[in-house]
Amino acid sequence: MPQPIDRDEVRRLVDGGAQLVEVLPANEYEEDHLPGAINMPLRKLEEEARTALDRSRPIVVYCWDSA
Amino acid sequence: MYDYEDGKLDWLAAGLPSEGTNAERPRAGDVARKDVPTCLLDERLGDVRDRVREAGWDACVVVNEERVVFGLLRSQELEANPDLGIEGAMRPGPSTFRPFVSIEEMAAFMIEHDLDSSPITTSDGRLVGLLRRQDAAKAALELHEKEHGSHGGRT
User: B22-147 domain in CATH 3.90.1150.10?
Assistant: First the structure.
């Protein structure tokens, strides 16, 4: 299970080289995303994560909010 | 694997930078004046009014030590009895808006609701700045002209 983290922890992890992944649809990602984030819409996450992400670095995923 | 549970909404509401097509367009947090005077609840109105006027302002945001917004002193509140405490003089609990709201949306809302100024705050209520209606309207008009061209010329 992914470990829940807050905004400060996101910044700390990203500063340390973590990969940021937005799982919202592409149009929402194109409008606004966190600096340096890549887009992997939830439906494609499993298939794309294997090839696009570096398993040796931490991965932070996010969507719009906690709802 | 980590889950940023509060997500993009939390990030944008904190006024942090973002990338994407919207990042190029001005938002409430970009246009809000960061130099707005602030005061604390336990100050005397007369002292605050002098300070606000010396700074060339006609409004002041009431905050606590963590810059969480409690109220607003507009020109009419600043004119009250100078011996009043701020808590008794302020307009409490003003509507606040998050920094990521588009400037067109803010301008339309402020004109429709006749708001002269609106505090812009993070999601935990901390002051980012004060958005003046004329600043919001000017920025929205400039954006419109940039994106759609000026229609000022007549034939």
Answer: no
ipTM: 0.93
Give A5-64 pLDDT, tens digit per residue. 999 999 999 999 999 999 999 999 999 999 999 999 988 777 788 888 898 999 999 999
Task: Decide if B8 and A62 are in contact by the 8 Å CB cutoff.
Answer: yes
The model carries a pTM of 0.81
The average pLDDT across B40-51 equals 97
**What's the distance, Cα to Cα, between the start and end of chain B in Å?**
62
How distant is the Cα of B12 from the closest Cα of chain A, in angstroms?
A: 9
Burial profile A28-66: b = 16 or more Cβ within 10 angstroms, e = fewer: bbeebbbeebebbeeeeeeeebeeebeeeebbbbbbeee
Report if residue A15 sits inside a domain. no
